[in-house]
């Protein structure tokens, strides 16, 4: 595609070169540049992409998008200056791939907790109804039959549009995508067309990045501001931010709630049991649902997916069948059962709100003692640490504190900040930094009818330590430990 087509409807200033230049790919990392690619220089949090322009040209870049004037412009190369490279990347991505969303219905999901779970449920309903669908999120990306690894919740705009063009090729017409607050702030979904957007909830998280809850909420609401009247929003009425999201929404608004009859979908009664849950709904659907998932929060996640599916015109029985078939969402309240006489649950709760929800659910379950293992990620919101400790103290009979992903931080500092949340008299806990040893200990001390909860890492397969990444999966370790230690 020629530069002039690529920049159609985008504001820019041509510093040097010509717009007839043919472009073979659009990339934001100089290390991946090949012949006749366009390099977008992004001024990042770690380094400034403008530093790598020379390297990009050496690797074959024919054109460069910049947001700062340069001292020198190399002959034969086109330089295009824009106001904001991240924003323009999203616009270029749309043009480069020929606006694939024109013929695709994409549903975006945002909120602090529940995005992965809700997206997984909705994806399964869409797949049941349409034969094939796409899913983009924390655990993995799926396009029809193809499964791809996911390294982040929401990829960069150019990577997203590449996926959408693959959807178009594979004739996958429906897609569900988790939209993180970072993505909204960093223009990863800027100008993207969503058929619908779902709001799960807001609680304190990522405040290291957003600074305060008000900024965080404003960023989350941008997804809804992107909707047009022909599109719709599905909002959790029970969250205290539902009015705020409604006000910001440009689409038609629909609400779900646990029991408010003013909502478009609510439960009239529900029951949580050992194997999952069942509930009746009122509002747009008067029927009965059975799911193999535990936890009140999963009533919310399923209501959001049901209401969206219903508004997309999917039949009641199709929705019911799809949901009934799901045995669990990977790493979300996932039960590890090798025949041991106590229960093991692995859950991704890594925020105070997620942890509170999951521990409340655990408290309501029939059991003897509750053993909780948790840690807190490094290089992330530090205010979570003492709060998560106080929740463990409140709900657990015994707590093991261990490493989550310490990243560049010293684990001892993370533990010290966690410990600040325990009361002075509290001593029913120990710190075992090595996560594998910590899980083994939790399982070793478990007695008949105890419940062991391994929190924070869910589906994660690797642990990020200072300068290395090691293979570590809570579920695998728990499984093996239960088999070995309990002689099963
Ligand atoms: C805070 C944040 O989101 N940072 C993202 C951002 O990084 P950055 O702007 O700091 O990039 P940088 O490393 O400074 O580099 C600047 C530019 O120079 C380029 N570069 C760099 C080196 C080089 O040799 N050549 C080169 O061209 C880089 O490709 C980049 O374009 O842009 C990078 C390129 O896309 C991302 O990899 C990076 O995500 C980092 C890894 C990250 O940890 N992000 C997390 C916080 C995140 O996005 N999480 C959310 C939400 C999680 C949730 O709650 O679900 C997510 O959506 O996953
Ligand atoms: N609707 C909900 N409300 C509150 N907590 C929830 C909800 N759904 C799930 N949780 C809890 O939060 C954890 C994370 O859930 P999930 O992975 O679905 O959220 P997410 O929004 O995708 O998180 P992330 O942003 O980290 O990817 C779960 O393991 C569970 O403990
Ligand atoms: N999307 C979240 C996931 C956190 C998961 C937890 N295991 C941790 O590493 O802190 C983040 O990147 O902040
Ligand atoms: Mg997620």
Structure, explained:
The protein has 3 domains: 3-84, Udp-n-acetylmuramoylalanyl-d-glutamate--2,6- Diaminopimelate Ligase, Chain: A, domain 1 (3-Layer(aba) Sandwich); 100-325, Mur-like, catalytic domain (UDP-N-acetylmuramoyl-L-alanine:D-glutamate ligase, 3-Layer(aba) Sandwich), CATH 3.40.1190; 334-486, Protein-Tyrosine Phosphatase, Chain A (Alpha-Beta Complex), CATH 3.90.190. With 488 residues, it is of the alpha/beta class. The longest helix has 16 residues, at 115-130. The strands form 4 sheets. Strands 9-8-7-10-6-11-12-13-14-15-16 form an 11-stranded mixed beta sheet, with helices on both faces. It contains 16 helices and 24 strands. The protein is globular, with a radius of gyration of 24 Å. The mean pLDDT is 95. Adenosine-5'-triphosphate binds next to helix 4, helix 10 and helix 12.
Task: Produce the secondary structure layout.
Elements: H1 3-6, E1 13-16, E2 25-27, E3 37-40, H2 53-58, E4 63-66, E5 78-81, H3 85-96, E6 105-110, H4 115-130, E7 134-136, E8 140-143, E9 146-149, H5 157-169, E10 174-178, H6 181-185, E11 196-199, H7 207-210, H8 213-225, E12 232-236, H9 242-248, E13 252-257, E14 265-273, E15 276-283, E16 288-291, H10 296-311, H11 316-325, E17 334-336, E18 343-347, H12 352-364, E19 370-374, H13 384-395, E20 398-401, H14 411-419, E21 429-431, H15 435-445, E22 451-455, E23 462-465, E24 468-471, H16 474-485
Parallel strand pairs: 2-3, 3-4, 4-5, 6-10, 6-11, 7-10, 11-12, 12-13, 13-14, 18-22, 19-20, 19-22, 20-21
Antiparallel strand pairs: 1-5, 7-8, 8-9, 14-15, 15-16, 17-18, 23-24
Bound molecules: ligand UAG, adenosine-5'-triphosphate, 2,6-diaminopimelic acid and magnesium ion.
